[in-house]
Amino acid sequence: MYGLNADTGALHKNDHTILPCDTFGELLSVSGDKFVVLDKMRSKILTINIKNGDISYKQKPISDLIKDSSGQAIILPSRLPELFALRIDSRVLTIKVTNEDDLVLVDKINNAAAVSDALSISEGQHAFAFIQHEGSNIHLYVKDVNDWNGDLLKESIIIDHQRGNIEKIFINNYVRTDRSYGFRALMVMEDHSLLLVQQGEIVWSREDGLASVVDVTTSELPVEKEGVSVAKVEQNLFEWLKVCL
Q1: DSSP code, position 116
Q2: Comparing C-alpha atoms, which of 69, 55, 60 is closest to residue 39?
Q3: How far, in Å, CA of 129 to CA of 114, rounded?
Q4: Contact 36/48 with Cβ under 8 angstroms?
Q5: CB 83: neighbour CB atoms within 10 A?
Q6: Do residues 129 and 184 touch, judged by C-beta distance below 8 A?
Q7: Read out DSSP for 54-68?
């Protein structure tokens, strides 16, 4: 851990801690001072805490979270506040990091193809989406990060199986006329095509397979832009969607 002077760039702190094992994959931030990473054998999760300039860690076997697991685990890059997603076998585990740096299993999602980043929809409220495959159908769920008992959205969409699996999903929200929240989802398919889904329908698709899409990023639709209402801004989705070719 390096501490730098923001004005001069001078290095004024350099601390390090030796972990008990080699690691697999990259560190994932679950909050401003907490990170998770897998050990080299992918059998344990290391929680690293950087607080007041001190570095500490804890490790927990994955078998303590789920007993009937035999596949290779991988931490998904989705960013969820105080949570992270772990794929193992055909399931995705959502795991909460407590204030004591302990790991608690929140939910198990079977046949999950992709998990989105968290989206702030109001003060203190965050939503995220995940996709489940079932033949030619996909099921789209949007949940409140802090309330797993209900669904903010649940839709089924038929997608051509020749597009392959869904590799990434991004969500955006809007306010309906009854003041409730609606959601649209942008899906990046295995053949690099893009699908925009809203209200259970494919609004449009882009066949970008020959363009060799390297990465995709999104930006939230502004509530107001230079005095233009959100209804008018929504007419141009390029304000929301940015595709890096």
Answers
A1: P
A2: 60
A3: 8
A4: yes
A5: 21
A6: no
A7: EEEEEEEEGGGT-SS
Tell whether 48 is covered by a domain.
no
Side by side, which strands form the sheet with 74-75? 74-75, 83-88, 91-97, 103-110
What span, in angstroms and rounded, lies between the C-alpha atoms of 121 and 67?
A: 35
Tens-digit pLDDT string for the chain (245 aa): 888 888 888 888 888 889 999 999 999 999 888 999 999 999 999 999 988 778 899 999 999 998 877 788 999 999 898 899 999 988 899 999 998 889 999 999 888 889 999 999 888 889 999 999 887 789 999 999 988 888 999 999 998 878 888 889 999 998 888 888 899 999 998 888 899 999 999 999 888 665 566 777 777 665 555 555 555 545 555 555 554 44
* Residue 47 · residue 55 · CB < 8 Å: no
How far lies 17's CA from each of 48, 56, 161, 168, 210, in Å? 10, 8, 48, 34, 46
Full-model pTM = 0.76
Sign of dihedral through CA atoms 226, 122, 127, 67? positive
Q: Which residues pair with 215 in a beta bridge?
A: 244
Please give the tally of structural domains in the chain. Answer: 1
* Radius of gyration over every alpha carbon of the chain, rounded to an integer in angstroms: 20
CA distance 50 to 28: 13
Looking up tokens 């929680």 gives 47
CA–CA gap between residue 172 and residue 156 (Å, rounded):
18
In a domain, 239, yes or no: yes
Q: 3-class DSSP state for residue 162?
A: helix
- Residue 160 forms part of a structural domain: yes
| Domain of 146, in residue numbers | 111-245
Question: Do the domain assignments include residue 153?
Answer: yes
